[in-house]
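Kindly review these tokens for lecture notes.

. . .
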Amino acid sequence: MANIFSSLKNAYQLFKNVDIGKLNELSKKVDLPKLLNDATHLDEQQWQGLMKLMSSKGKSKPLPAIEGDFYHLGDEALKDEDRALQLKVRAFLEKELKPIVNQYWLKAEFPFELIPKIAELNICGLTYQGYGCAGKSNLMEGILAMEMARIDTSISTFFGVQSGLAMGSIYLLGSEAQKQQWLPTMQQFKTIGAFGLTEPEVGSGAAGGLGTTAKRKGDRWVLNGQKKWIGNAPFADVTIIWARDLDDNQVKGFLVRKGTKGFAVEKMHDKMALRIVQNGLITLTNCEVEEADRLQNANSFKDTAKVLQMTRAGVAWQAVGCARGAYEAALKYTQTRKQFGRPIASFQLIQNHLVEMLSNLTAMQTLCFRLSQLQDQGLLTDEHASLAKVFCSMRTRDVVSRAREVMGGNGILLEYDVARFVADAEAIYSYEGTKEINTLIVGRAITGFSAFV
């Protein structure tokens, strides 16, 4: 008897707000007496489940925020003022860069109109002390490199060349007079820099095989050779040229100004990645540079390597940004793209891809946070930077591949953003030291044996 009264009570609760007219229409489509008879045989748990289902019908549950920093590393590690700077840069990139990035990428052109606006952010040369620079942490600089690459890896690369490779060469290896002359205007983007190390026949072998030569003649140096893949070169005001001194066979650095006789730059075309970056083929033909424009503290490739070690950490952060941009775009897509009547984010295989992407991304972020902490503590080594570059560039390839996969055919269209990240990940994989070279640097450190030829 108690079960009967309980069932009647549950039925009353279930049907008290039923629209009789709609119930009549329903009876024309289903066997209503049988349905009601079956309902009287439900146990208490089944009734509760049915009422919960009906009460929740029509209510949309808000979706989780799209957040690539799953472990909230930025929230925990940054001071309030640095967190505010990160969000300021992010807002700028979302507003100013994101709406135009695809058209510039497609045309392989650079958005020069953004340079004065980027200068207003006051983030160039972020970690340097003095010369108008902010003197902030390497962690902060890495996070900003990630924020830029999250929208577009090309802009992050342009910034890395200016702030890291070019300014860094002067900051680490220049005389005080050279620092005073160049760094303040470079920090404000009034002077644009480039970094000329790679050559048509020399990439990873730059340590001992540079073909570009330098010969001193009185108070001048005569440079001859070629440089290839030099970012910013077609429009740079000054280019750091690395050349082998014919007298002592050591690598030295030179500040070559735009317009110098014997210095010619040809823009490279038809790239499939980093298309916004303006790369140049530089030809030096009896190019004369004054001794005052030789980097006074760059006397061997070991000095050059100091710059590369510093910037290699930044490239690892760029890989994080590239992966994060692809992951967040893919996640947003899967939440709204519907197949078989529901969002594809609700499918098991799609969720597996998303979690694999997030796992890789989170591991990369965690590694780079620790890398920047070591850099801030003065403990960074070549092998630390190389391991980060190897791991992050490999994992980024996997993330962007999965991002394209969950988007199906739309993943190859620029309008969905992921296609750019897929292409740009290939450049990240190779530049600033290939996977193989960086692997051997780490291998030498952990085994005690050099496997370099």
